[in-house]
């Protein structure tokens, strides 16, 4: 957690942009994908079968 916060603040301090620079910390898009996977796990358990991860939903950046 400490390194993630350091990386985030360094990214901001250095004037970097998510549009042009690759971050070395988790982004909103990463969290969104993680939640899509979690949703698929819960749906799979409920239906007792494999389901596809619905990660094609648009994420605003």
Give the key terms.
61 residues, mainly alpha, 2 helices, 52% helix
Task: Record the SSE blueprint.
Elements: H1 2-13, H2 28-47
What does this structure look like?
- The protein has helices spanning 2-13, 28-47.
- The protein is mainly α and 61 residues long.
- The protein is elongated.
- The model has no long low-confidence stretch (mean pLDDT 90).
Please sum up the structure shown.
With 61 residues, the protein is mostly helical. It has 2 helices and no strands.
**Order of secondary-structure elements:** HH
How would you characterize the largest beta sheet? none
Beta-strand segment tally: 0
Termini separation: 23 Å
Low-confidence stretches: none
- The helical percent reads 40-55%
Shape: elongated
Radius of gyration: 16 Å
Strand content: under 5%
Q: Which structural class is indicated by helix and strand composition?
A: mainly alpha
The number of helical elements comes to 2
Give average pLDDT, whole number.
Answer: 90
